[in-house]
Amino acid sequence: MPWWQKVCAYQIYPRSFMDSNGDGIGDIPGIISRLDYLADLGIGMIWLSPVYRSPMRDNGYDIADYRDIAPEFGTLADMDRLIAEAQARRIGIVMDLVVNHTSDRHRWFEAARSSRDAPTRDYYIWRDPAPGGGPPSGIQSFFGGPAWTHCPETDQYYFHLFTPEQPDLNWRNPRLRAEIHDMMRWWVARGIAGFRMDVIDLIGKDVDRALIAEGPHLWTYLDEMHREVLAGTDLVTIGESWHASLETGPRYVAPKGLLSMIFQFNHIVAGWGEGRNKWAPAPFDPRVLKQALFAWQALFDEEGWNAIFLGNHDLPRMVSAFGDGSPAAAKALAAVLLTLRGTPFIYQGDEIGTPNAGFGSAAQYRDVETLNMLADAPDAKSGLAAAEVGSRDNARTPMRWSDKGGFSQAPPWIGFSAATASVESQEADSGSVLSFYKRLLALRNGTEALQTGRFEALLDDHPTVLAFRRIGGGQTVSIAVNLAGTSAELPVAVLSGGSLLLNTHEDINPQCLLPYQAVIIACHDC
Ligand code: TEU
Ligand code: CA
Fold first, then answer.
1. Per residue in 29-48, pLDDT tens?
2. 286, 318 in Cβ contact below 8 A?
3. Which domains can be identified in the chain, with CATH numbers?
4. Among the residues of 15-145, which ranges form H helices?
5. How far is the C-alpha of 295 from the C-alpha of 29, rounded, in Å?
6. Strand locations in 306-399 (E)
7. Ligand 1 in contact with 314 (CB < 6 A)?
8. What is the pLDDT of residue 149?
9. What is the pLDDT of residue 72?
10. What pLDDT band is residue 525 in, cutting at 50, 70 and 90?
11. How many CB atoms within 10 Å of residue 33?
12. What is the dihedral of CA 315, 330, 11, 249, to 10 degrees?
């Protein structure tokens, strides 16, 4: 089994994790100072959201130099120290590979925009205005507005799927692809453990035919990247694909595909309901979440591997989206996250049950996507309501390390989420969310069935309970989790015939789970 199938991963959003120098912005020395906390939690891999040099139009997902660190986050020497210090604790650092686009301040783009003859002109996607003027086509960007921006210097439009400050790279250009491969090898040589590949499903696009996601060239580019950089290494690769489906999923993931695993979002968007509107999601229905998760469990049951996550820096907090924001709900969701088959990704702050930001005022939002939405909202009240449920800033609030905050000496760049007990106070409380995470991680890290065992669904139809077995290493483990604030009846068979491994509550009644109760048993006779 490859190393990345056994470990639990943790996502760090550097801006909001730990500030070491009192400027209100999290940084790499801050992360280093908290590595012991992460080792103690029991994680074996960190996915680091981007720390490269960037104008921070999209908080680092707009990269101006792939081989340098943003000054507010530190230096390359800090980064090398982070890699080494993490390695010393048996934690691998996974870099965010953002190569669908660069910043418009990348030197490739600065040269490209200035002249049609620039050597890097073709690293980007340029088209003439439509006959009669205006954008070459009607394709829209994900953050609102047209995906084309006009450059007066050369009277052509360039293509961007995100903000105008994030021009898309032209992957059809072999020199560009070679530059990316070279940059990847440069990071590998520094000792990283792998790559999380930002919107990797978009790189094979054909803009002239309006084929964007999972475009015609995607699979050849992944194939080439594998040959050039990844083959023969034990690097972990996690592709981000908002468009992967049960049909296309296996094309990404080994053994049929070339990545270790993908972040796919079927279980996320299923919860948005009919309109697929993240700003106005349907009320949470555990059955919808279960069906989507279980379908992917079944898909990669024998071959292939899942990345398991319930939240990240682009999504509302998991305890708010899939629960009622309470510590009880946070524990129940943790039990799901850490027992499914696949590599679990804990998003920073979820281990202390951080809920949505709950800012209550539009002025506190910072994210470009949210600010665009607010500007277009029919009125201020509905705009704010949308932000409170759907904004990416919900997950970008600072870590609450101590009761006084503990994130920074200065006012943080963005406000805290309300109502979270701090790391410090939860460490001192054996009944806290954090203490439950530690027990859960210790259990998983010591139980082969939970790491690499087969998945078998139980109770497909139950309206609120997720129940399943994991089978491996000569052991069967049963898991039952009630994702509702009301009690749930249970067929006796699910939780009998075994010995208790973990329970969120004091008691077990094999015929009934309490609100948000999670029970894990080792089967002898089940
Ligand atoms: O996200 C991809 C992406 O499609 C999201 O931006 C998504 O559209 C949005 O979050 C839904 O609300 C990745 C990164 O994770 C994100 O932070 C970046 O903004 C984006 O790519 C561009 O690099
Ligand atoms: Ca700082």
1. 999 999 999 999 999 999 99
2. no
3. 3-100+174-356+427-437 (3.20.20.80), 107-159 (3.90.400.10), 452-523 (2.60.40.1180)
4. 28-33, 35-41, 76-88, 107-114
5. 41
6. 307-308, 343-347
7. yes
8. 98
9. 98
10. confident
11. 15
12. -60
Question: How far is it, in rounded angstroms, from Cα 482 to Cα 464?
Answer: 6
Q: What's this model's pTM, rounded to 2 decimal places?
A: 0.97
Q: Are 200 and 232 in contact, with CB atoms under 8 Å apart?
A: no
User: Does the beta carbon of 393 lie inside 6 Å of ligand 1?
Assistant: no
The interaxial angle of helices 174-189 and 218-225, nearest 10 deg, is: 40
Structure tokens that stand for 271 in this block = 């919860």
Distance 373 CA to ligand 2 centre (A): 29
Q: Which amino acid appears at position 224 of this protein?
A: E
How many angstroms separate the first and last alpha carbons of the chain?
27
Residue nearest ligand 1's atom 7 by CA: 314
The first and second tokens of residue 268, run together, are 């996320």
Contact 427, 433 (CB under 8 A): no
- Residue closest via CA to ligand 1's atom 17 equals 314
Ligand 2 (ion): residues with CB under 5 Å are 19, 21, 23, 25, 27
Residue tagged 């002898």 (tokens): 524
Residue count of the chain, please give it: 526
Cβ(282)–Cβ(272) under 8 Å? yes
Q: Is 165 exposed, middle or buried (0-12, 13-18, 19+ CB in 10 A)?
A: buried
pLDDT tens profile 379-426: 999 999 999 999 999 999 999 999 999 999 999 999 999 878 999 999
Cα separations in angstroms, 20 against 31, 73, 161, 211, 507: 8, 10, 34, 44, 43
For residues 182 and 215, what is the distance between their CA atoms, to the nearest angstrom? 24
If one counts every other C-beta atom within 10 angstroms of the C-beta of residue 363, the result is 9
Of 145, 47, 153, 60, the C-alpha closest to 110 is 153
DSSP string, 456-520: EEE-TT-SSEEEEEEEETTEEEEEEEE-SSS-EE--GGGG-SEEEEEESSS--BTTEEPTT-EEE
pLDDT of the residue at 496: 85
**3-class secondary structure per residue, 237-305:** EEEEECCCCCCCHHHHECCCCCECEEEECHHHHHCCCCCCCCCCCCCCCHHHHHHHHHHHHHHCCCCCC
Three-point CA angle 267, 271, 274, nearest 5°: 120
For residue 359, what pLDDT is reported? 97
Work out the percent of the chain whose per-residue pLDDT is above 90: 95
